[in-house]
């Protein structure tokens, strides 16, 4: 790209984006204000609510109270809803799109045309092979996406998801970014979903929604040391030394240790942290809004196009991903020395999520804000779950604090003492206690204080205050969903009438958590889609995942994923996460269901075990029972196989072998008949009639053999029952004894 003055051109681009970022902050102000107030109710201390600056900002004045109480409803919301919304890393499922069966008649008269028959068979064989490749490709990706949540640094996906859910419950929105990374000292590249606070994310201020296409750009704020930024974007060492905007605590501590460096603070030499913004745009580099000439706009549109990636820092006059030669570590990588292809690569999205109409992150919103004609940009930001009850929580903090203060003042004792005796009495009553001391002249003490002092009390409204507090708490519960049943308490403190009543209220109380769990699952499904795209475009190869898949399967990874066409990866498979995999299981319900299921199942399996000697089904049932009641299973409780009498075993084995041989022979004959019918399907009308006749004869023959085999098996069974009646009685007695032992141990564990 031939530009005469690249420095001036790039400075205008940075200035334009800096102005847009400022407008995006202003459009987000309403959301930020509500989020800040909700954070106050989430804080573990009451000081933030009673902070003078906070009160002046949101109340317009300051409030004073001896008792400064803050109702932590945001914390209660997180403590109750959070653990149920993300219990463990979910199972990520990757599935191909199933092909639609094509009727053979669409290929023509394949019954009478051998060429069409061959074409149809070849087409179906190719489709079956392609479907097998797609299925195995999805299995590889599913295995990989189930592996990365555990390997992800900073606590894995579980920790990132918990942070996102917490921020979405408190502030209204949580954000996950898909990124690739390498562990220190390793060349393996992996991908993951990483938490980013919504405070550092902005979207197009003209947008009425955060969705791709409705918003034309989005940005993410970073604050990193200047030397990290220099390495990240290929700048020479020291290029950003005096362009930092924030001073780190590390530098501040070093300055305090060296008094001689205090003068450097005023010069800005100690600002070692830099604020910069990553911008993903679907409206070009930004030359249209920067006052550039028409030919510059056309040149950038032709070279870069609509989908552009820009990194700007307010203190740097050029985009960090398109540096000038004076600050480049290698001048060949500068804007001045770059060709059109190199400029396009500089401003290209690192991962082209736009090909699937996605941003590089996913948003978790529980309550969307409807469109408001007076403030259309507000709908781009969601509503915090505690937002509708901020007023009630504020009133509760003020009223309860003042009520406690009033109760404290009313409980104080005032002591009047003659001025001549004040020194003696002051030694008895210490200052700062529950007693207030008043010095009274001796003349007034002789007349009596009742003649000169009279208390004036306002009407007693303590009963009304208590009712008001109860009403406000009730309103908060209705708006937030923090009802008494969520705390395992009976509504109103009474006793439930019936079990149906309890179940109905429990089901109603679970409507909100169920809806939230579905939104969490949808967010994680979209995140899995992003990570799939990130893994493909970041070049995850067989060398990176060989320890996971093994040497053979990893080779197919390169063939089916790394070297595959982008459209196959973007549109040929879908990633899903089920809500039931995310939510915490209901152990009480599982134990109740198992208690109802266990008696009949154990009786049936005991009979089966006595007849066959195979105790594994009964052991499996016992393991599930122990898991349902959350008790550890010990292998010594497992029942060992019972060996039946030798003669009976031989007879049963012979009968089983004969029956298996007959079944295998019948299955082989049936398979041959099906193959014969399939081969004759494409012949003439006379051959079809003959085939139908042969098929009927084969079916009759098969039915007769099945009937014969069944009759023979019944005879063997009757013979065995008559002969082994006494032996089975002993086996049943021993099995019942072992079951009683297991039941007694289960009762002890319970």
Structure description:
Mean pLDDT is 78; it is low at 262-268. The chain has helices at 6-27, 29-42, 52-58, 73-85, 114-151, 156-170, 226-232, 249-257, 263-267, 294-303, 340-346, 390-410, 422-426, 442-447, 462-480, 499-509, 511-537, 542-549, 551-562, 566-571, 579-582, 587-612, 616-628, 646-680, 685-723, 725-749; strands at 92-96, 173-182, 189-196, 201-203, 217-225, 273-281, 308-312, 361-365, 413-418, 435-440, 573-577. 54% of the residues lie in helices and 9% in strands. The strands form four sheets. A four-stranded antiparallel beta sheet has the order 4-5-6-7. It has a three-stranded antiparallel beta sheet with strand order 3-2-8. It has a two-stranded antiparallel ribbon with strand order 1-11. The chain is flat and about 125 Å long. By secondary structure, the protein is an alpha+beta fold. A hairpin with a 6-residue loop joins strand 2 and strand 3 (189-196). It contains 26 helices and eleven strands. Helix 24 runs antiparallel to helix 25. Among the domains are: 211-358, no CATH class; 597-749, no CATH class.
């Amino acid at each position: 790209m031939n530009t005469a003055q690249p420095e001036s051109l790039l400075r205008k681009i940075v200035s334009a984006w800096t102005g847009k970022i400022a407008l995006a902050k202003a459009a987000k102000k309403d959301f930020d204000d509500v989020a800040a107030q909700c954070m106050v109710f989430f804080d573990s201390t009451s000081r933030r609510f009673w902070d003078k600056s906070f009160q002046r900002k949101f109340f317009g004045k300051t409030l004073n109270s001896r008792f400064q109480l803050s109702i932590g409803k945001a914390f209660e919301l997180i403590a109750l809803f959070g653990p149920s919304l993300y219990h463990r890393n979910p199972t990520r499922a990757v599935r191909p799109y199933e092909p639609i069966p094509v009727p053979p008649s669409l290929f023509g008269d394949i019954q009478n045309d051998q060429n069409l028959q061959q074409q149809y068979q070849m087409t179906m064989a190719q489709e079956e092979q392609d479907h097998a490749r797609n299925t195995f490709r999805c299995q590889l990706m599913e295995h990989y996406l189930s592996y990365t949540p555990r390997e992800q640094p900073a606590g894995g996906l579980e920790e990132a998801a918990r942070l996102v859910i917490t921020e979405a419950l408190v502030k209204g929105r949580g954000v996950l970014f898909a990124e690739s990374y390498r562990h220190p000292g390793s060349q393996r590249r992996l991908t993951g979903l990483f938490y980013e606070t919504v405070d550092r994310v902005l979207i197009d201020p003209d947008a009425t929604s955060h969705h791709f296409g409705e918003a034309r750009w989005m940005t993410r704020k970073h604050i990193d040391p200047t030397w990290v930024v220099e390495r990240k974007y290929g700048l020479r060492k020291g290029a950003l030394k005096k362009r930092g905007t924030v001073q780190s605590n590390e530098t501040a501590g070093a300055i305090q240790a060296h008094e001689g460096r205090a003068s450097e603070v005023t010069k800005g030499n100690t600002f070692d942290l830099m604020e910069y913004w990553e911008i993903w745009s679907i409206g070009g580099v930004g030359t249209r809004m920067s006052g550039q000439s028409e030919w510059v706009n056309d040149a950038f549109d032709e070279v870069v196009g609509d989908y552009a990636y820009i990194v700007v820092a307010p203190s740097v006059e050029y985009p960090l991903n398109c540096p000038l030669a004076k600050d480049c570590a290698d001048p060949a990588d500068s804007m001045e020395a770059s060709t059109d292809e190199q400029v396009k690569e500089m401003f290209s999205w690192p991962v082209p999520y736009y090909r699937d109409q996605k941003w590089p992150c996913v948003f978790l919103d529980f309550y969307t804000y409807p469109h408001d004609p007076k403030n259309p940009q507000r709908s781009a930001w969601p509503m915090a779950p505690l937002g509708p009850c901020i007023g009630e929580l504020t009133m509760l903090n003020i009223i309860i604090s003042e009520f406690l203060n009033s109760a404290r003042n009313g409980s104080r004792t005032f002591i009047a003492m003659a001025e001549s005796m004040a020194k003696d009495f002051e030694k008895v009553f210490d200052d700062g206690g529950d007693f207030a001391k008043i010095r009274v002249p001796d003349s007034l003490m002789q007349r009596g204080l009742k003649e000169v002092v009279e208390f004036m009390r306002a009407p007693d409204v303590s009963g009304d205050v208590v009712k008001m507090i109860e009403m406000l708490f009730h309103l908060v519960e209705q708006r937030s969903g923090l009802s008494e049943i969520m705390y395992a308490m009976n509504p109103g403190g009474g006793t439930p009438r019936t079990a149906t009543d309890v179940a109905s209220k429990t089901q109603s109380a679970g409507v909100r958590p169920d809806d939230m769990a579905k939104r969490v699952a949808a967010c994680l499904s979209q995140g899995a889609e992003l990570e799939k795209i990130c893994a493909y475009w970041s070049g995850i190869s067989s060398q990176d995942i060989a320890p996971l898949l093994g040497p053979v399967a990893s080779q197919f990874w390169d063939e089916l994923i790394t070297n595959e066409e982008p459209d196959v990866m973007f549109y040929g498979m879908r990633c899903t996460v089920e809500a039931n995999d995310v939510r915490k299981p209901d152990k009480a319900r599982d134990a109740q269901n198992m208690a109802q299921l266990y008696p009949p199942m154990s009786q049936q399996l005991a009979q089966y075990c006595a007849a066959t000697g195979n105790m594994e089904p009964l052991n499996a049932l016992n393991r599930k029972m122990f898991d349902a009641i959350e008790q550890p299973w010990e292998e010594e409780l497992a029942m060992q196989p019972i060996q039946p009498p030798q003669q009976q075993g031989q007879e049963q084995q012979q009968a089983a072998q004969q029956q298996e041989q007959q079944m295998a022979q019948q299955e082989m004959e049936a398979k041959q008949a099906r193959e014969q019918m399939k081969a004759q399907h494409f012949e003439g009308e006379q051959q079809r009639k003959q085939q139908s006749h042969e098929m009927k004869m084969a079916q009759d023959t098969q039915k007769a053999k099945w009937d014969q085999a069944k009759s023979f098996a019944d005879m063997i069974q009757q013979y065995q029952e008559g002969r082994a009646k006494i032996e089975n009685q002993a086996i049943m007695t021993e099995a019942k004894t072992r079951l009683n032992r297991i039941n007694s141990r289960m009762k002890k564990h319970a």
